[in-house]
Amino acid sequence: MASAFKLACYLLLAPRLQAQKDLHPFSFRLPATAMGIPSPRRCLALLQVLPLVLLFLLLAGSSMALPAQPAMDRVRWQVDRVNRRGPSLGLVMSYVDEATALQSSGYFSPWPVLPFIDLYGFQDDGFTSAAFELNAAVTVQTLMDVFTVSGIVHYGTAGSSNDSMSFGDVSVPKLVAYTGAWTWKKFKSVKESSAELRFGEYNIPNGGENLLGSLKFRNEELYSVGKPMEEVFWLPVDSAWFKIAEQLKVKLERCNDTFCLPTTPQVVYGLKGSSADMFLDNPEYRKFLFREFGVSTVDEESAAVVMTTISPGVPVIVFRGVSDLAGGEPTWSSTSLMNLASINALKVAVEFITTVGKQKSMASTQRSNS
Fold first, then answer.
1. Which residues contact 50 (CB under 8 A, 6 or more apart)?
2. What is the pLDDT of residue 186?
3. What are residue 14's phi and psi, to 5 degrees?
4. Rounded to an integer, what distance in angstroms lies between the CA atom of residue 42 and that of residue 6?
5. In sequence order, what DSSP letters do the residues of 163-194 get, joined into one string?
6. Residues 274-302, buried b or exposed e (16+ Cβ, 10 A)?
7. Which residues, listed in sequence order, are joined to residue 123 by a DSSP beta bridge?
8. Which 3 state secondary structure label does DSSP give 17?
9. pLDDT, tens only, 57-85
10. How far is residue 319 from each of residues 181, 208, 223, 249, 341, measured CA to CA in Å?
11. Which of 221, 183, 250 is nearest to 310 (CA)?
12. Helix (H) or strand (E) segment spanning residue 80
C-alpha cells in the first residue's frame, strides 16, 4: 500500500474575480514516514476573494514516484510565484469527508492546468501505522518551510466527550492537549497526580486492584524560537485569532442528504480539545477525559498542528465539527453524520478566513491612505 502527504490548492469561486487568471492553485505530496502512514487525504486552495493568498493543506495517499528534475524545476517556479504574491494562509484537514466538503462546497475550484505538484513520492511495504500526530506535524512543518505562511487554519471532525455538545456542533477550542503520551506505572505504585488512569477502578463489578497498574499522562517538550525548552500539557491557539473567531455569526447546517438533526447545531467557543493516535470509541475513557481534563472534543491531529505552529510563532486556530460521541452515542450509527460535521466545520473556517481577509484589506487601505 502506498501512502504520502498531499497538499492541494484551489481557487475560491468569487464571481467578481473569476476573470483573474493569475492565481494558480496547486498541490504537493510529501513523503510518508518510514514507519508506514495511514492514507491521509487531498486538497487545498488559493483564496481569490481576499487580498492574500490562501493555501489549503490535506493529508492524502499517493503512489507517485520521485518526479524528474524538469518537473521539480516547475514546482520551484510555481512555489516562488505563489510566495511572490505575499504571505499565505494554510488550511489543514485530514479526512476524506473533510476534503469532500471542501471540494463540493462551491467555495473552491481546482486549477485545471496544474491541480497538484508532486514534491516527493514514497512506496511503503504494506505496513500502516496510526501515526496521525506525526503526519500532521511533518506536513504542517513542510508547509511552513516551503511557503511564506502567515497562519494556519485547521478544520475537521471530532468526537464529543462533553454531553452538552452533540452531532453537528462546531467547537473552537482555546486549548488543546496531546493525551496519547503515557508513562505506564507499576502495580501499586504511588499515585502522583489526580489525572492518572488506574485500571483497577474499572474492574467489574466494584473496582479494586488490577495488575495493569496505572497510566500517568506526560507533558510534551515544546521548543520555541528564542526560548528554552518548556514542558507543557495544554497548547493554546492564537489569542488574537480566537478573539476574531468569537465574533463570527455562522448558521450551521441541520440536515445532509440522508438525515436531519432534531435541532440546529451551534458553534461553541473556548472549550478544551485533545488529540491522540487513536479513534476513541469507549464511553468510560470518554468520561475520564472530560472528568479529569475537561476535554470536550477528541481527535487525532489538532495538538500536533497547534504545537508545530507555536514553535516558530505562526498563528493557528482550530475548528472541529462533532461527528460522533466517542462511544457515548445511542445504539444507532452516527457515520451518516460525518459529512455534516465536516460541512459545518468548513463553514465556520471559511467565515473566519473571510473575516481575517477583510481585516487585512482594511488595514492595508488605511496604511495606503496615511
1. 12, 353, 354, 356, 357, 358, 360, 361
2. 86
3. -125, 110
4. 5
5. TT--TT-EEE-SEEEE---EEEEPTTPPP-SS
6. bbbbeebeeeebbebbbeebebbbbbbbb
7. 2
8. helix
9. 444 433 334 445 666 677 788 778 778 87
10. 23, 40, 24, 14, 10
11. 221
12. helix 69-84
CB 282 within 8 A of CB 157: no
Angle at 282 between CA 278 and CA 284, to 5 degrees: 125
Q: Which helix (H) or strand (E) holds 198?
A: strand 196-198
Which backbone phi and psi does 164 adopt, to 5 degrees? -85, -10
Strand 88-93 versus strand 53-60 pairing type: parallel
The whole-angstrom distance between residue 276's C-alpha and the CA centroid of its chain comes to 13
Burial (CB < 10 A; 0-12, 13-18, 19+), residue 50, is: buried
Q: What is the DSSP letter of 257?
A: S
Amino acid 78: pLDDT:
75
Q: Residue written as cell 492565481?
A: 23
Per-residue model confidence (pLDDT) at position 335: 57
Q: What angle do CA 152, 155, 159 make, to 5 degrees?
A: 140
Distance between CA atoms of 184 and 182, rounded to whole angstroms?
A: 6
Single out the residue of 85, 209, 104, 203 nearest to residue 150, CA to CA.
85
Q: Residues with Cβ < 8 Å from 265, sequence gap 6 or more?
A: 166, 167, 168, 169, 170, 252, 253, 254, 322, 344
Measured CA to CA, the distance from residue 130 to residue 304 in angstroms comes to: 14
The residue assigned the cell 472528568 is 291
Which candidate, 61, 49, 55, places its Cα nearest to that of 3? Answer: 61
Give me the residues of the chain with pLDDT under 70, please: 1-72, 109-131, 194, 330-336
- Quote the pLDDT of residue 46: 32
Length of the chain: 370
Rounded to whole angstroms, the Cα distance separating 273 from 292 reads 13
Q: Which SS3 state, helix, strand or coil, does residue 73 take?
A: helix
Q: Residue type for 41, please?
A: R
User: pTM score, two decimals?
Assistant: 0.78
C-alpha cell at 265: 447545531
Place of cell 442528504: 257
CA atoms of 147 and 67, how far apart (whole Å): 20
Give CA–CA dist 93/308, Å, rounded: 15
CB of 337 closer than 8 Å to CB of 168 = yes
